[in-house]
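Mods, move this if it's the wrong board.
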Amino acid sequence: MNPSRFSIFGAACVFAVALSACQPNYEALAQSVISSEFHDFRVAPVAESLQDPWSIAFLPGGDMLITEKPGRLRIVRNGQLLPDPVSGVPEVRYSGQGGLFEVLPHPEFASNRLLYLSYAKPNVDGEGTTSVIRGKFDGRALTNVQEIFEAKAWSNGGAHFGGKLAFDSKGYLFVTVGDRGVNPLSVPRHEHPAQLLNTHQGKVIRLHDDGRVPQDNPFVGNGDALPEIWSYGHRNLQGLVIHPDTDEVWTTEHGAQGGDELNVVRPGRNYGWPVIGYGVQYGGIKIHDSTHKDGMEQPIQHWVPSIATSGLMIYTGDQFPEWRGQFFVGGLAGQQIARVPVVSGDSGYQVGRMERPPLLSGFGRIREIRQGPDGFIYIAFDDRRGGGLTPVMRMEPAGAG
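Not the wrong board. Structure tokens:
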């Protein structure tokens, strides 16, 4: 299949998937050479028949870990997906957008064997919240599992858990917590939980690696605020990365109908949801007071219409040299990887010319995107129906292998 035929198939499948009449043909994708502005590449299978794969992590010994949202942590070892999941993973609330989310090795995993997992934690009343545990991984099981963070974000709703994790260079752990789907029209905008500092809903959290609160967090000492909070005014943060050069925290988050955002997230700042933004409520009803307001941050990039931003990556490898330093944003509803060249100027960060059409446009929902230690780009595909089986694949230069 040549690139032009692939593009036609992808466009046709976008329309057909919207009508539930077609599923992405990953075998055809693996047989294609895909052209982009700077690099031609192939997409090779890594692990197949996964149920709701959500996160990918790489371990120093060569293993790759994949979370499946129903609550399974899977191992790819020596190129093979092992049949048995890792034992010791806590029970998850697998409903709606809830389940098992991120897997993240400790920066010193080679010596301490610590893995971190975020997940939707259930309670006896059927509610859920975002929780983070850590445990020691012996190659087959998690042991000595302990909870290090439980979000004050309990709800019987099934939406907007966040659940992304990242360590910065100083060893601080960042956690995203969504607004739990609270209708922005149900309360005055300034009283929405994302705007309140006495809840973790709609927040980025900063912790020590054992869950303790750093004393230089921006709201420590404020009796009206939870001390774990790093930033607030977020809707549902589905991408999180620490910039390898600046150590800045970058996120992507979902707008409603329009208004997805790429943000650089700074301590104590308010990112506006739902007071300001670029989208509307489902059905076209106005949400926001405006797009700008004093004391509230502007996104570096926003998308209208929404692409349903997911995984976020900054490429630093050698396999695709023209992409070094650029941001890559997965899209669920948008079925794409957006390549976002961010540059720093006198007036702050700006976005250069983005690739059109986006990478892998129209070939399925992208849940996660990660750079591997080999410099290839690993992608987890998502099935909106829930329960459908999808692969993890990797982007390789067309001449690789």
